[in-house]
Amino acid sequence: MRGCGRMGDKDISGGAASYFSDSMTFEEMEKILSLLPANIYLKDAEGRYVFCTQYWHHLRDKDEPGWTIRGKTDVEIREDKENALLAMEKDREVMRSGKGCRYVIEIFQNGVQEFLEIVKEPIRDGKGNIVGIVGLINDVSESEKLKRKLNRMAMTDSLTGLGNRNSLMRDLEKLTADSLPISIVSADCDGLQMVNDTYGKATGDEYIRMTAMVMELALPEDAMVYRVGGDEFTIVLVNTDENEAKGIMRMFKEQYDQYRIQNQPLSISYGISTAESVRDDLRRVLEKADLDMCQRKQRRRRVL
User: Which residues form the PAC domain (predicted)?
Assistant: First the structure.
């Protein structure tokens, strides 16, 4: 086909190798690489852009006449300063360690949430000295949003919207000594099976949802509430000793007892255990709260 062997003003009929072996300018390289959907860039040893194949819309002043990215750092061109500083920090780490990196950033601009995957590798000269960085930016918004949605689903109880057992165990591992004392409440809806058998599972589900709602309304704002089983809930109260936790639950139960379902009052049993020091294993504290709740429930059944 006539003309297929030419690009711009250069004849490449002798093959790509002879074309690329000539002194190709950065402008020509940018033009070729810009055919790819990803953003490919080069930076010098100071983190200044040498060239970039795509100008993403988060850049400042990019629409000004004669504007170029060349010679500028991320802090000079990016509107999101936090990610700009992170980019330069990652550049310095690549230059220092000689190892590449890969990470994802979140950008929220003009009401639009985006996720970009950044890949960076060091460039070495013939003597092995690191002289710059080659990088790649991919838009991974769709896959990252799906991943985060699946993660949320894995940590959320679908019936109540509360965190589930996975979420509880994750959050317990995050707690530090600053949260001590930590009181854990294990709670259980009374008579759920009877409600299911008498009025149907839909009414039983409403019983559970109503319990979750009252917990969110009546407990302290910083209380961490989870549905961990069929009719089982766990409440984590940070910076709360056992006496304070007992007072909180008494006040909660006073409000809870005012609610009814199918003209029957709601009823709940609970147990409390408290971690006073860093030596206390929170999993063990949780087990003690479960045991305390079961014992209270048994005593109540014997009375009834």
Answer: 99-152
What is the CA angle 47-51-54, rounded to 5? 110
Model confidence at 23, pLDDT cuts 50, 70, 90, reads: low
Tokens found for residue 185: 């409440």
> Which residues, in sequence order, are CB contacts of 171 under 8 Å at separation 6+?
163, 224, 236
Instruction: Please answer whether residues 236 and 184 qualify as being in contact, where contact means their C-beta atoms are separated by less than 8 angstroms.
Output: yes
Q: Are 272 and 292 in contact (CB under 8 A)?
A: yes
Q: What is the CA radius of gyration of the chain?
A: 30
pLDDT digit string, tens, across residues 229-288? 999 999 999 999 999 999 999 999 999 989 999 988 889 999 999 999 989 999 999 999
| Nearest to 171, CA basis, from 238, 104, 271, 252 | 238
CATH fold, domain 157-303, is: Alpha-Beta Plaits (3.30.70)
151's tokens: 């993660």
> Bridge-partner residues for 185, per DSSP?
235, 272
How many angstroms separate the CA atoms of 203 and 218, rounded?
22
Q: Which amino acid is at 193?
A: Q
d(CA 76, CA 74): 5
Q: Report which residue type is found at 83.
A: N
